[in-house]
Design brief:
The chain has 20 helices and four strands. By secondary structure, the chain is of the alpha+beta class. A hairpin with a 2-residue loop joins strand 3 and strand 4. The chain is rod-shaped and about 160 Å long. The two termini are 79 Å apart.
């Protein structure tokens, strides 16, 4: 932890303590019954939680602000900043000696926006309700104290008026009924009358009467009691003082009852607010969740994803623009794919144009390979790659001389070596494109044999990629069925017999069995009739 962090933590702790001390003093001044009662601990705990949540929200931006200010100070004052922040400079020197700092991994925790909104608004509702409750309790406390003060003044004035005649006549015993009538209410704690010298002539508590001798000092009213004094005068001459002490216990009871009601209101309002926030956030978040689901689908390649664009708010407008964007992406993707396939077909046609005997060969091999892969249960992505590899399986012949391609007799050793290079050449051409790397692998191995005697790598059995084994079978079938410069085409029956004979040596037996089933179903004949 750097010196800046320690300074910031101390500042937060001091601020927290100052806020709590101010709160405690306010609580004791305004609501003494609450401060001394059983609700004191609970209210303080809730207040500390709220302060902690607020400080937590403030901490990050404040820390960033302090860091920016500190860095600016360091930039302006140079070495002076280094002296005030030794931990930071030492850390930087250690970083330079230890090498580049590693980036902290990003957090994988996921908090739904619904929860964030609900919690944020719930805290806001709690704070607003708490402030309202605090104001109501304060207002009721002030109101009750004012009303109690008015009543105390009235009782004291009545006592002063009724005590005037007994004081003038000097009959102190007549003060007893007057005092007793004053303290007959439960909220009146005591009442007494003093003479002009301050001696207590009659007190509602007999032990506190001093007779004609004034007390040495005037005692303050006891805790929880408010007192009022009214001079008793006759024609401007003071002859005594009436004093009434009233307990504020009923005010405390009323405040406690108010606290019960306010807390019930606080909890009820907060609970209702939280439930309402969750319901409202859930209602609005459904639109965002649908939009998020559609974005994920588009990211996974499903360009037919759309969002129901309901409502005239920002989310509805965003959904409309999202649908428009995806539609344009889908159109552009279709055009790009069509252009890509046309380019692939043009490459295949360029290869076939060099050899008139193989016209239509690549397209037939592609169709046979795709249907065979479909029968074997390959997924759509692999089928697309298989079809492209079948179309481009002879693209490496671009680098083969025409005298070799068009030779009518047997090939010489060097000519055969040149011909057997075309899978590698085709693989290098295709593998240079990131979208066709797998296709390049299949093209490289389409002349491997199941028994391991093929070329260029001599792979055997399952080591040969399945799409390459499929292309090898479809390529051999179509090659035997078409005229070549060095021989005439074989009949269908002769071709099928040779494929059966080479099952397990040149071809995968499983593929041979599937191919024969396709022939029985008439699939091969339909492909040959469609692509002459």
């Amino acid at each position: 932890m750097t010196s800046r962090d320690r300074l910031w933590n101390r500042t937060l702790n001091r601020s927290n303590s100052a806020i709590m001390n101010t709160f405690d003093r306010t609580l004791e001044d305004r609501l003494p019954s609450v401060a001394d009662g059983r609700w004191s601990r609970g209210i303080r705990i809730v207040t500390r939680v709220i302060i902690f949540m607020v400080m937590s929200k403030v901490r990050k931006p404040a820390t960033q602000a302090v860091s920016i200010a500190f860095n600016a100070h360091a930039t302006l004052h140079g070495t002076a900043a280094s002296r005030t922040a030794p931990d930071a400079t030492q850390g930087q020197s250690r970083d330079r000696t230890a090498g580049p700092a590693k980036e902290e991994p990003a957090s994988d925790l996921y908090f739904p926006l619904r929860i964030k909104l609900a919690v944020s608004f719930s805290v806001l509702v709690l704070l607003m309700t708490g402030v309202a409750a605090w104001y109501l309790v304060r207002h009721e406390n002030d109101l009750l104290r004012r009303e109690a003060g008015k009543r105390l003044v009235s009782l004291t004035e009545n006592l002063a008026t009724n005590a005037q005649d007994p004081l003038l006549s000097g009959n102190e015993l007549r003060l007893g009924p007057v005092i007793e009538s004053t303290v007959q209410d439960e909220d009146v704690t005591y009442a007494y009358v003093m003479n002009h010298e301050g001696a207590i002539l009659y007190h509602s508590e007999p032990g506190k009467m001093t007779g004609n001798n004034p007390p040495e000092e005037s005692a303050d009213p006891p805790r929880g009691v408010i007192e009022h004094r009214k001079p008793i005068s006759v024609e401007g001459v003071k002859i005594g003082t009436a004093v009434v002490g009233m307990s504020i216990g009923y005010i405390q009871k009323a405040i406690e009852s108010a606290i019960y009601g306010v807390l019930f209101l606080l909890l009820g309002t907060t609970a209702a607010g939280i439930v309402g926030i969750f319901l409202l956030s859930g209602y609005h978040m459904k639109k965002i969740e649908r939009l998020l689901h559609a974005v994920v689908e588009v990211g996974e390649g499903h360009l037919n994803a759309r969002v129901e664009a309901g409502g005239n708010d920002e989310i509805g407008l965003l959904a409309k623009h999202f649908n428009t964007m995806v539609s344009r992406i889908e159109t552009a993707h279709g055009e790009l794919e069509r252009t890509f396939r046309e380019t692939i077909s043009a490459l295949a046609a360029a290869v076939e144009a060099r050899d008139s005997y193989t016209r239509g060969h690549c397209e037939r091999v592609a169709r046979i390979s795709e249907r065979l892969g479909l029968r074997l249960g390959l997924d759509r992505e692999t089928l697309d790659e298989l079809e492209l590899a079948a179309i481009l399986h002879d693209i490496g012949k671009i680098g083969t001389g025409e005298h070799v391609l068009a030779k009518t007799g047997p090939l010489e050793r060097d000519e055969r070596g040149m011909m057997e290079k075309h899978p590698e050449v085709g693989s290098r051409i295709l593998s240079s494109l990131s979208l066709l790397q797998k296709v390049g692998v299949y093209v490289r191995h389409h002349h491997e044999r199941f028994d391991g005697t093929g070329y260029p790598d001599g792979l055997k059995g399952a080591a040969i990629p399945l799409p390459a084994r499929i292309i090898a079978l479809a390529d051999a079938y179509d090659a035997m069925r078409t005229d070549r410069a060095y021989r005439r085409a074989l009949s269908k029956s002769e071709t099928l017999d040779r494929i059966r004979a080479d099952s397990g040596t040149q071809f995968d037996p499983t593929l041979v069995a599937a191919f024969m089933e396709m022939d029985k179903d008439g699939v091969i004949d339909r492909i040959w009739s469609e692509v002459p």
